[in-house]
Design goal:
Layout (H helix, E strand, L loop, with lengths): L2 E6 L1 E2 L11 E2 L5 H13 L5 E9 L7 H14 L1 E10 L6 H9 L4 E7 L3 H6 L6 H14 L4 E7 L6 H14 L3 E6 L7 H7 L8 H17 L4 E3 L2 E2 L7 H7 L4 E4 L4 E4 L2 E5 L3 H11 L4 E5 L2 H12 L6 E2 H8 L3 H4 L1 H9 L3 E3 L3 E4 L1 H5 L1 H6 L6
Amino acid sequence: MKSLYIHIPFCNRICTYCDFTKVLIKNQPVDEYIDALIMELESLEHKNFETIYVGGGTPTALSPKQLERLLSFIAERFTVSTEYTFEANPDEVTTEKLDLLKNYGVNRVSLGVQSFNDEILKVLNRSHNFDDIFKSINHLEKIGLTNYSMDLMYNLPGETMNDIETSLKYVEQLKPKHISWYSLIIEPHTVFYNQIKKGALKIADDNVEAEKYERVMEGLGELGYPQYEISNFATSEFESAHNKTYWLNEHYYGTGAGAHGYVGNQRYYNIKPVPHYIKSMNENNTVVKETISLTEVEQIEEEMFLGLRMTEGVLKERFKDRYGMSIDEYYKDELNYLKDKKWIRDDGINVSLTEGGRMVGNEVFMSFLKST
């Protein structure tokens, strides 16, 4: 087992676009949640990992005392050989909290910037502003936690192409080691979804979204950030080792309320509501979860969906080693169709998306479905 994900579902604000498992931290049983989370972590068979990723929610919403309790337990229980990432909000990155992260072995921070435009940040209901972004990065640099990823979004309400150019200008100035730049996706059960249904919110059409995405790819390439995944950019030494576990379709533990994991041929989903998660751990010393067993056909489909997100694509030799068959034989008709469309390239070693294929990624992925 290479990787471990730990979920902290608490936030100081609920963002208008977010559909992750999260709750406002005020009046929540945070200490009881950490107790339950530690019980689940103690039950894991493996103790040595290449990567650990603590996400949310917002892990930095925890108080310094709560944060230290979690960090000290992780340090005592597990070893991390490659990458140990914590998600953070710019306005919550105090010197005290950053010192704790560094002292307990965290070597990478994922900073939720989203936008440099204060008006857009208000629409997103983010708790930080423009100045907080620079203060937090100054703190990171000062204590030597220089391996940080900057999370950005595009196609946001009220956003113009000028905002994309402004963000590129600040990326050039700040020089983060890694950029994740995602398009806004309107998910059910979010504030934005409800606003769109009522006609109170509009977002740009697909053509404008594609234009912004092309500029993001072009601009980051010009700044020296190679694209290694559909929405992620970094030189090879700073690619996210943890997220590549997902894209390479490898196994990982997911712990905490609503967390997902993948072990053997099973994907599992922990119970979501925080009180239910705590009750499950306290009463049964195990978490209630939904488990889905994947057939080999479904595993192969996921191999294609996930692998094609990466610029290098799906390695043919790796596919054959895993499934005992050639990708060229198994997907002969599909590959020929997609090559004719110029949506994939095949160099004999890898199958990968072309730039045109990236623009219609979901349609490409659907071509590899055999289980329906």
